[in-house]
Amino acid sequence: DGGITQSPKYLFRKEGQNVTLSCEQNLNHDAMYWYRQDPGQGLRLIYYSQIVNDFQKGDIAEGYSVSREKKESFPLTVTSAQKNPTAFYLCASNNPGLLGHTGELFFGEGSRLTVL
Amino acid sequence: AQSVTQLDSQVPVFEEAPVELRCNYSSSVSVYLFWYVQYPNQGLQLLLKYLSGSTLVKGINGFEAEFNKSQTSFHLRKPSVHISDTAEYFCAVSESGYSTLTFGKGTMLLVSP
């Protein structure tokens, strides 16, 4: 079945350590997105990529980095510079280039990062 | 720029009662509207969407929503809720011709027996 796979589901790290969250999709979508979710704050866009080897900052990119070396993969690194990294992270994808594209997003199951 | 307001952060309701979750948006152009549902520690799942045509849209799990252009609203309704409907619900909007989806802050639906 086509979908988006995020791993790991749960991750614990010590303060000051970098951590990388994986996101893989087999939907053949061009665009991929990373969102951060905190209680009561909805979804905030961290980074997005509309094509391989290119990506743009979202609203809260500070302390995060991404890469897009393959169409299927869009890993997110939470660096030690991120002041408050404990959160639920969601990866999503869509195909903006399709005729009649509506903006609908397809989501992975999320990764919960806890920094101790 | 588009924006979405979900007026209620939490809606408590008893099982088998009706429920309405409110969503208002602002945009100067034609829009597409979406409702997503999120169960605890899971991703977002599409509940229903309005693209064009009939203003009453039916989705999964017995939910429906009505697009009201004059009031710029897209409220979600269900005539009789179940315990299993307990989840967070997000309203989202995109403008025709663009790919960016803007989300509201979410409404937590709490169904009790």
Structure description:
The complex is a heterodimer of chains A (about 120) and B (about 110). By secondary structure, chain A is mostly beta strands. Chain A has strands spanning about 5, 10-15, 20-25, 30-35, 45-50, 55, 65, 75-80, 85-95, 105, 110-115. In chain A, the strands form 2 sheets. In chain A, strands 2, 4, 5, 6, 9, 10 and 11 form a 7-stranded mixed beta sheet that branches. In chain A, strands 1-3-8-7 form a 4-stranded antiparallel beta sheet, with no helix packed on it. Chain B contains no helices and 12 strands. In chain B, strands 2, 5, 6, 10, 11 and 12 form a 6-stranded mixed beta sheet that branches. The radius of gyration of chain B is 13 Å and the shape is globular. Chain B starts with a strand and ends with a strand. The model of chain B has no long low-confidence stretch (mean pLDDT about 95). Chains A and B meet through strand 9 of A and strand 5, strand 6 and strand 10 of B.
In short:
With 116 residues, chain A is mostly beta strands. Chain A has no helices and eleven strands.
Radius of gyration of chain A: 14 Å
For the biggest sheet of chain B, the summary is:
6 strands, mixed
Class per helix and strand makeup of chain B? mainly beta
Shape of chain A: globular
pLDDT averaged residue by residue of chain A: 93
Total of helices of chain B: 0
For the largest interface in this structure, which chains are involved and how many residues does each contribute? A-B, 24 and 24 residues
Shape category of chain B: globular
Low-confidence stretches of chain A: none
